[in-house]
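Researcher: Here's the sequence for the chain we discussed earlier.
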Amino acid sequence: MAKKIMIVDDNPDVIFSVKSGLENVTENFRIIGVESGEKCLEILETEKPDLILLDIMMPGMSGWKTFDKIKENESWKKIPVVFLTARTDRVAKNAGGFLGEDYVEKPFNIEDLKLRIDQVLEVDSDEETND
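Model: Thanks. This is the structure I predict for it:
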């Protein structure tokens, strides 16, 4: 069964490239593109993805704030979050790597992104079987 991956990024070109790139390398993902943190939270009310790719720098609600809102909600807090961002400073790397399941810098290689998503989802499913 295909895994639902939500990508939250204010740049529609990034959403398009991730969606088309991942769909070209695997049939195992169904990609949901969302252009803001607010829209992400709205969609989570009715649809629960298996993983969220989250940009940090977005107008309005930042990726950090969106992350906090996701983790505050009982229904969503176990959804793994991978930060996907152009921020490469040490603070963002450390916080993103500590808070999220992974931290991927833009630009990225689509094969590498798929591998990292696979690793997070595999770890996540391993933890569920141990609960």
